[in-house]
Amino acid sequence: MGSRAVASAPMNITSNRLSSIYVLDQDQALDFYVGVLGLGVATDADLGFMRWLTVRVPGDTKEILLERPGPPAHDPATAAEVRALVSKGAGGGWLAFSSDDVDGVHAALVAKSVEITQAPSDQSYGRDMGLRDPFGNNLRIGRMNA
Q1: Which helix (H) or strand (E) covers residue 51, if one does?
Q2: pLDDT tens digits, residue range 23-74?
C-alpha cells in the first residue's frame, strides 16, 4: 500500500472533547467508572430515545460517553452483534488514562478485584498497566516519559 496525498483546507481543530465506549449496562458502568476509577459524572440525561451518560476525570474537560449499543446508532440486530463483541473484549474501543502513581493505582484496583490484564511495567514511553472494565473493554493507565 502506498501513501496518497490528500489535499485539504487548513483545519483549526483544537481538542478532542468527547469520546465514547460501549457498555452493556449504564448503571453498572457508573458503578465502575465513578465508584471504582473515581471519575465524575458530567452528564446524565434521558433523551427519550437514549440515555446520554458521560463521565470525566476530575478537573478535565474531555468527556467519555458510556454508550449502550442500540438506537439511534444501531438497529436491534447490529446492537446484538456489538454487545457480543464488547463482551469478548473486541468492541473496538479502549481508553487510556494518565496517573503519576501507576503502581498505587494498580494496588487500589487489585484490592477492588478489578480484572488486571497487565501489571505495571516499564515501557520505552513510560510506565503503564492494563485492565478491563466489567464489560470487557480494554483500559490503560500510565505515566508517560517527558
Answers
A1: strand 51-56
A2: 999 999 999 999 999 999 999 999 999 999 999 999 999 999 999 999 888 9
99-114 pLDDT, tens per residue? Answer: 999 999 999 999 999 9
Does some domain include residue 138?
yes
In DSSP terms, which residues pair with 44 in a beta bridge?
53
Query: How many other C-beta atoms are found inside a 10 Å radius of the C-beta of residue 3?
Result: 5
- The enclosing domain of 102 has a CATH number of 3.10.180.10
72 upstream amide cis, omega within 30 of 0 = yes
Asked if residue 57 lies in contact with residue 96, where contact means CB atoms within 8 angstroms, the answer is: no
What are φ and ψ of residue 2, in 5° steps?
-100, 165
For residues 136 and 87, the answer to whether their CB atoms sit within 8 Å is yes
CA 49 – CA 27 distance, rounded (Å): 17
Give the strand pairing for 18-22 and 63-67. Answer: parallel
Residue 108 is part of which domain span? 18-144
CB-side neighbour CA atoms (13 Å) of 33: 32
> How many domains does the chain fold into?
1
